[in-house]
């Protein structure tokens, strides 16, 4: 439907009805120092044809070649049926269900999504998603601050340095203004966190651990969980959901399991799309459910015994009074959750496990091929899932740039994120990578290093 703005006469009629002289008067409560003023830097409009030409040229630049880049966004195969179904009008145009019970189809789908995520994480409850993995982790930290009644007077949260750097930045930006202190547990020479560091930290109310961690390695989550619980701290798991098809679920870490699990749902039916959009999943144990942000869909029966679905465990302020809400999440990334639910339904538990194992196997093939090159080795000799850190004999950023010119997205240079990692390259291979592509990467790297 085309956008048709109000006419000048309609604007005058509206302002007269309200009782103000101008549109500007509607914003008089905003201090002048906060107003943008006239947007002189915004260029003049262009024609539709010019706009499409510009966007096509920009899109062409995104075709970087064969992708061996991971670091939180992965090049998995998305079955054609996923978006054929998700693009149907009843899914594509559905929005946040403010009058939720009138949208039984949407609610049923979200309920199925919640059930699948609760099963994957081994926790009791899942919500109707959050924006993405990074903001979801910040929500988890705030939820732990609200929900941990055992640690008195502390607002300290321990975050492993092996958590994704962007996640740590998002957490700091969101929770620091709310008086939460983030203490970083340093990464060891083995590329993991020493569980003993939890004992030495000052009175934490929560611990954040990523599994697999940012380097693709497997943390000692059992020891970390038990040590945190011994200090009455809650445990927040940030996990790649695909890995949960083959790795131990957060709800089973240690003796009692993690308390909260969150992460990015991009591996389930969501294309890389130049980095977004995506959605975040969020799960917890039942005692914390009333502190959970976002929406929760429940299954019930009506007076005639028919199955129905409804929003549950939420005060109305969650939707209409920002100041009283647990969180100010406005929508649930519903279309992407729809795609993820269809994706998981099509593959099933065995299919997801097969994708995870194929990705891990391809990464091992990739690492074996690249480390056969003189001067290339693994930086960390630890178990990994489907990402690994290579140590190169040259600056990793320059090597990656040279490989990009050869049509290979080689991985993520780590020097920007971790001191002393200027020659470190984080590589990833999913189930999509072929033996021929891995061999092509190996030959190209040999040429570049030569």
Question: Key features?
Answer:
4-stranded antiparallel β-sheet, alpha/beta, 450 residues, 15 strands, globular
Account of the protein in words:
With 450 residues, the protein is of the alpha/beta class. Helix content is 36%, strand content 14%. It has a seven-stranded mixed beta sheet with strand order 2-8-7-6-5-3-4, sandwiched between helices. A four-stranded antiparallel beta sheet has the order 11-12-15-14. A two-stranded parallel ribbon has the order 1-13. Helix 5 (104-121) runs parallel beside helix 11 and helix 6 (133-147) crosses helix 7 (165-175). The N and C termini lie far apart (57 Å).
Number of helices: 13
Structural class: alpha/beta
Largest sheet: 7 strands, mixed
The unreliable regions are: none
The rounded distance between the terminal residues' Cα atoms is 57 Å
Please provide the count of β strands: 15
Order of helices and strands: HHEHHHEHEHEHEHEEEEEHHEEHEEEH
Taken as a percent bin, the fraction of beta residues is 5-15%
Radius of gyration, Cα only, in angstroms?
24 Å
Gross geometry: globular
Name the helicity range.
25-40%
Strand order of the largest sheet: 2-8-7-6-5-3-4
Q: Mean pLDDT, rounded to whole units?
A: 92
């Amino acid at each position: 439907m085309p956008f048709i703005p109000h006419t000048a006469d309609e604007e005058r009629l509206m302002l007269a009805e309200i009782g103000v002289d101008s549109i500007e008067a509607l914003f008089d409560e905003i201090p002048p120092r906060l107003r943008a003023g006239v947007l002189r830097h915004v260029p003049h409009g262009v024609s539709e044809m010019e706009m499409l030409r510009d966007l096509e040229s920009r899109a062409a630049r995104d075709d970087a070649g064969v992708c061996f880049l991971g670091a939180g966004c992965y090049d998995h195969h998305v079955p054609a049926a996923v978006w054929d179904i998700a693009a149907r009008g009843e899914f594509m145009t559905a929005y946040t269900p403010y009058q939720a019970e009138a949208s039984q189809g949407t609610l049923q789908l979200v309920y199925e999504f919640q059930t699948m995520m609760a099963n994957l994480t081994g926790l009791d409850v899942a919500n109707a998603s959050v924006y993405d993995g990074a903001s979801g982790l910040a929500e988890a930290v705030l939820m732990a601050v609200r929900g941990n009644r055992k640690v008195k007077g502390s607002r300290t949260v321990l975050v492993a340095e092996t958590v994704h750097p962007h996640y740590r930045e998002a957490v700091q930006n969101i929770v620091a203004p709310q008086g939460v202190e983030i203490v970083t547990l340093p990464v060891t020479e083995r590329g993991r966190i020493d569980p003993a560091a939890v004992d030495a930290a000052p009175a934490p109310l929560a611990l954040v651990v990523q599994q697999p961690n940012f380097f693709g390695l497997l943390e000692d989550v059992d020891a970390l969980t038990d040590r945190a619980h011994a200090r009455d701290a809650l445990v927040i798991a940030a996990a790649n959901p695909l890995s949960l098809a083959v790795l131990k679920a957060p709800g089973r870490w240690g003796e009692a399991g993690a308390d909260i699990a969150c992460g990015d749902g991009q591996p389930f039916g969501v294309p890389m799309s130049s980095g977004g959009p995506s959605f975040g999943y969020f799960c917890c144990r039942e005692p914390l459910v009333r502190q959970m942000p976002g929406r929760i869909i429940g299954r019930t029966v009506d007076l005639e015994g028919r199955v129905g679905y409804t929003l549950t465990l939420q005060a109305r302020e969650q939707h209409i009074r920002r100041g009283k809400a647990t969180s100010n999440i406005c929508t649930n990334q519903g279309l992407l959750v729809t795609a993820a639910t269809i994706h998981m339904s099509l593959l099933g538990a065995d299919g997801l496990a097969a994708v995870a194992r194929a990705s891990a196997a391809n990464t091992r093939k990739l690492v074996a091929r690249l480390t056969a090159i003189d001067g290339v080795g693994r930086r960390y000799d630890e178990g990994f899932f489907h990402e690994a850190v290579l140590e190169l004999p040259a600056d990793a950023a320059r090597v990656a740039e040279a490989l990009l010119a050869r049509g290979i997205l080689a991985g993520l240079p780590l020097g920007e994120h971790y001191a002393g990692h200027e020659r470190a390259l984080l590589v990833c291979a999913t189930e999509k990578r072929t033996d021929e592509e891995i061999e092509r990467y190996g030959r190209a790297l040999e040429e570049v290093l030569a």
